[in-house]
């Protein structure tokens, strides 16, 4: 390589370094802050739709067999539920029905039954048994996202047996009345909910027309029951 070419290359390299030295290297920029995050609240849980479920609880109340005076009834219940919800924003309107197997019993003392029934001896007790109880009610509630607070009211029915024990011979009757109460329901996930509720049930009067079974014909039993129960429902949303 000619000396002149080498000298020219060396000269250009030196000029380049000197020229680069005149421009300082920019300092690293400040870190860019991340974009602000605003959490998005979920919408109201979709309460609309048909639902079915199971329920169970405890029944306690009062019976009155003609002039015996009041005596207590109590026992467990378990059964099924069906209903439907129509939401208007957070307001939920719907209908619910249920039918429960019941083991609810109550009886007087022998002396109390003897005085009321005109019995020849103060031996038997006047006994009442409820084997089935059900309701058909309208519901009105207000939802706080996954929680629903509600009241309900409507009709009630029951299968009731009354008689002397011993000899444990009972006359059966179908009772009609009304029910009212309230409770709270909570949505676990989209389709599953759990609830707790209280119902007051008035089953009216049930007649026993057998003198053999009830001591005298035309005996009437009035029944008022309180139900405390819990349940789980599966909802078919629409």
What can you see in these coordinates?
It contains three helices and eight strands. The chain is mainly β. The protein has one domain (50-236): Porin (Beta Barrel), CATH 2.40.160.20. It has an eight-stranded antiparallel β-barrel with strand order 1-2-3-4-5-6-7-8. A hairpin with a 2-residue loop joins strand 4 and strand 5 (147-165). The termini are far apart.
Features:
238 residues; mainly beta; Porin; 8-stranded antiparallel beta barrel; 3 helices
Q: What's this entry about, in short?
A:
With 238 residues, the protein is mostly beta strands.
Order of helices and strands: HEEEHEEEEHE
Question: Which structural class best describes the helix and strand composition?
Answer: mainly beta
**Strands of the biggest beta sheet: in what spatial order?**
1-2-3-4-5-6-7-8
Major β-sheet profile = 8 strands, antiparallel, barrel
Instruction: Quote the average pLDDT.
Output: 82
**Global shape:** elongated
The tally of structural domains comes to: 1
Could you give the count of β-strands? Answer: 8
Beta-strand content: over 45%
CATH topology: Porin
Q: Into which percent range does the helicity of residues fall?
A: 10-25%
CATH class placement: Mainly Beta
Number of helices, where a helix is a run of at least 4 consecutive DSSP H or I residues:
3
Low-confidence stretches: none
Radius of gyration: 39 Å
For the terminal residues, how far apart are their CA atoms?
88 Å
Assign the CATH architecture: Beta Barrel
